[in-house]
């Protein structure tokens, strides 16, 4: 028996309702020929326990739907993204970078997923480990795209001591942004100019994206960009460690839950979070990103 969980975007728009009806119909028909158990839940109703022991998770929506619930999914559970409102069919729809299936291809794609013939993408995810001054430790949810560390008051500067390896400095910025290779289009490309991005890209070797991440300190003084370039923008596999000099700050993975910390807390960011097994059906995600970048 194959245990399948379907998580769908619920916003009462007819296009998403129609997509859900199509997915339900295809899966119901499959039950006549395959031993599968199906459970369907709205994104707002799922909890961590709903994902335990599943053989396949189908996420119906856009990239935001996937990133909002992906932290519940462990590294051993295959995930299939289905775009319920493709931009190719409606300018107001979702590009759905992670959603390699849509309603037109779902019937074929689910067969590939169940037969083990889909492309498996082993995706690294970012995490932040927060150590408080009282000795408590908290690990944030894993981030598929990016992770922000900043002052909770955006009008106030983010102050901290920064360390990576044997390099140290005291810094003041508008916050630190960390991004995975696949998540660079979500925020990173809008934060730094194309010239700087091209310099970073020239340092990337094949296979690096599996354990490296991008790092940028937003709006730091120009003198520090020159004197300590590693503390401004980087492509690295080393852990980045900062000690907060802010009264109150927060870590935000993938733009969802905020995790707060106080002055003196130490935050360690790396790609040691549980990875994600995401299925695609025509190209790998790395190939999709290259195709997307060539069009920009």
Quick structural gist:
By secondary structure, this protein is of the alpha+beta class. It has helices at 14-30, 63-69, 106-114, 194-202, 222-227, 285-295, and strands at 2-8, 36-42, 56-61, 78-83, 101-102, 119-123, 127-131, 137-139, 146-151, 158-164, 167-173, 176-179, 213-217, 233-236, 240-244, 248-253, 259-262, 266-270, 276-280.
Secondary structure: elements and pairs:
Blueprint: E1 2-8, H1 14-30, E2 36-42, E3 56-61, H2 63-69, E4 78-83, E5 101-102, H3 106-114, E6 119-123, E7 127-131, E8 137-139, E9 146-151, E10 158-164, E11 167-173, E12 176-179, H4 194-202, E13 213-217, H5 222-227, E14 233-236, E15 240-244, E16 248-253, E17 259-262, E18 266-270, E19 276-280, H6 285-295
Parallel strand pairs: 1-2, 1-3, 3-4, 4-5, 4-19
Antiparallel strand pairs: 6-19, 7-8, 7-18, 9-12, 9-16, 10-11, 10-15, 12-13, 13-14, 15-18, 16-17
Q: Can you characterise this structure?
A:
This protein is of the alpha+beta class. The protein is built from six helices and 19 strands. Strands 1, 2, 3, 4, 5, 6 and 19 form a seven-stranded mixed beta sheet that branches. A hairpin with a 5-residue loop joins strand 16 and strand 17. The model has no long low-confidence stretch (mean pLDDT 94).
User: Could you tell me how far the N terminus lies from the C terminus, measured between alpha carbons in angstroms?
Assistant: 44 Å
Range of helix content:
10-25%
Given the C-alpha coordinates, what overall shape results?
elongated
Biggest sheet character: 7 strands, mixed
Summary tags:
296 residues, alpha+beta, Rossmann fold, Tumour Suppressor Smad4, 2 domains, seven-stranded mixed sheet, six-stranded antiparallel sheet, 6 helices, 33% strand, elongated
């Amino acid at each position: 028996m194959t245990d399948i969980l379907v998580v769908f975007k619920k916003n009462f728009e007819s296009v998403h309702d129609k997509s859900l009806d199509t997915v339900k119909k295809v899966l119901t028909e499959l039950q006549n020929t395959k031993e599968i158990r199906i459970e369907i839940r709205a994104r707002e109703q799922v909890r961590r326990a709903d994902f335990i022991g599943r053989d396949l998770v189908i996420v119906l929506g856009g990239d935001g739907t996937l990133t909002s619930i992906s932290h519940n999914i462990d590294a051993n559970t295959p995930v299939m993204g289905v775009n319920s409102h493709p931009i190719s069919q409606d300018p107001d729809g979702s590009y759905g970078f992670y959603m390699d299936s849509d309603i037109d291809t779902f019937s074929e794609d689910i067969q590939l997923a169940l037969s083990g013939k889909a492309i498996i993408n082993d995706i690294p995810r970012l995490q932040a480990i927060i150590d408080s001054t009282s000795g408590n430790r908290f690990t944030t949810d894993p981030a598929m795209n990016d992770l922000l560390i900043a002052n909770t008051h955006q009008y106030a500067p983010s102050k901290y001591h920064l360390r990576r390896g044997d390099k140290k400095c005291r810094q003041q910025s508008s916050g630190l942004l960390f991004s995975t290779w696949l998540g660079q289009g979500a925020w990173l490309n809008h934060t730094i100019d194309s010239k700087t991005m091209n310099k970073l890209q020239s340092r990337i070797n094949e296979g690096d994206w599996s354990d490296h991440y991008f790092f940028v300190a937003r709006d730091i003084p120009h003198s520090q960009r020159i004197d300590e370039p590693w503390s401004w923008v980087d492509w690295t596999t080393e852990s980045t460690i900062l000690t907060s000099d802010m009264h109150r700050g927060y870590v935000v993975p993938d733009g969802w839950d905020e995790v707060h910390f106080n002055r003196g807390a130490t935050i360690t960011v790396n790609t040691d979070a549980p990875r994600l097994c995401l299925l695609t059906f025509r190209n790998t995600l790395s190939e999709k990103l290259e195709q997307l970048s060539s069009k920009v």
